[in-house]
């Protein structure tokens, strides 16, 4: 893996991450950005610096178990299902506050911020409204519920929607 000036690489499949890991380790920071199955946690827990897709307390429990076993902490972003789409994973916005509180019960799982995938939209303004809702809710939870005074990390937007994601925060 020739990194050509890249500092961070995101991988969305555990099998591909494992396949390419030897060429990436100690050269770039590796983020896991896809859906993470509980049975795959043990294969990547010590290989990634950030998991963008913490979608459930069951996954948090497995991350905690595997991280504790290895004596490491794992940085995560809470995945928010902002479009309330049944076909997508993530925490529903109305459950996000309680979800973030519960993460405090997992000392090796470190909440660093929030991730969302907006539904497919017809316009940038429609994307913006989903990202702005995520941003406002997340900052409120971060500051007022969790009492954090640092800034959360946000992972929002893709090729068709990164501009409105940036505009929303």
Sheet with the most strands? 6 strands, parallel
Q: How far do the termini sit from each other?
A: 32 Å
Q: Bin the helical content.
A: 25-40%
Tally of alpha and pi helices: 6
Shape: globular
- Mean of residue pLDDT values: 93
> Could you tell me the radius of gyration in angstroms?
16 Å
Number of strands: 6
Q: Return the string of H and E elements.
A: EHEHEHEHEHEH
What class would the helix/strand composition place it in?
Answer: alpha/beta
Low-confidence stretches: none
Spatially, the strands of the biggest sheet line up as 1-2-3-4-5-6
| Strand fraction | 15-25%
Describe this structure in words.
This protein has 6 helices and 6 strands. The protein is an alpha/beta fold. Strands 1-2-3-4-5-6 form a 6-stranded parallel β-sheet. The mean pLDDT is 93. The radius of gyration is 16 Å and the shape is globular.
């Amino acid at each position: 893996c020739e990194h050509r000036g890249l500092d961070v690489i995101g991988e969305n499949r555990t099998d591909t991450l494992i396949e390419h890991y030897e060429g990436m380790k100690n050269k770039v920071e590796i983020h896991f950005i896809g859906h993470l199955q509980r049975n795959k946690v043990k294969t990547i827990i010590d290989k990634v610096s950030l998991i963008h897709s913490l979608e459930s307390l069951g996954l948090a429990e497995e991350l905690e178990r595997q991280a504790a076993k290895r004596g490491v902490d794992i940085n995560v972003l809470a995945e928010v299902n902002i479009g309330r789409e049944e076909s997508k994973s993530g925490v529903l916005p109305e459950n996000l506050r309680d979800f973030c509180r519960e993460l405090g019960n997992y000392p090796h799982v470190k909440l660093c911020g929030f991730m969302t995938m907006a539904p497919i939209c017809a316009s940038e303004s429609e994307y913006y409204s989903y990202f702005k809702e995520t941003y406002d809710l997340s900052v409120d939870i971060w500051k007022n519920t969790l009492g954090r005074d640092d800034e959360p990390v946000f992972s929002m937007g893709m090729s068709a929607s990164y501009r409105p994601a940036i505009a929303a925060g």
